[in-house]
Amino acid sequence: MLEEFKKFALRGNVVDLAVGVIIGAAFSGIVNSLVGDVIMPLIGALTGGLDFSNYYLPLSSKVTATTLAEAKKEGAVLAWGNFLTLTLNFIIIAFVLFLTIRALNQLKRQEEEKAPALSKTEELLTEIRDQLKSR
Asked: Using an 8 Å Cβ cutoff, are 87 and 99 in contact?
């Protein structure tokens, strides 16, 4: 059983997935900082300091607080401002990821285009291989 686990854990897919998760977590920190420290303050400056995160609708008459954290302690609230903020963050993060993946794909295409041309021998061998596959 230990040998089977070792084969599983060291298989390329598992290792690649682990590296992807670690890089994803690091990239998430960068993107969250971009959103929280750069983009949202700019949006706040453009909207006159508007911060949606503390907007809520009290669902109980006991709630009289002015901040969301205090209001949650007093009773039930519908934190629509926090939801809106998180939704905006998601959209911005998804767009940044889209731009990053798009740039990586363009780099990949450029590398593929730079691939050296096949020699006559390689072209003939490729044609023979393709013909054998089609049979």
From this structure: no
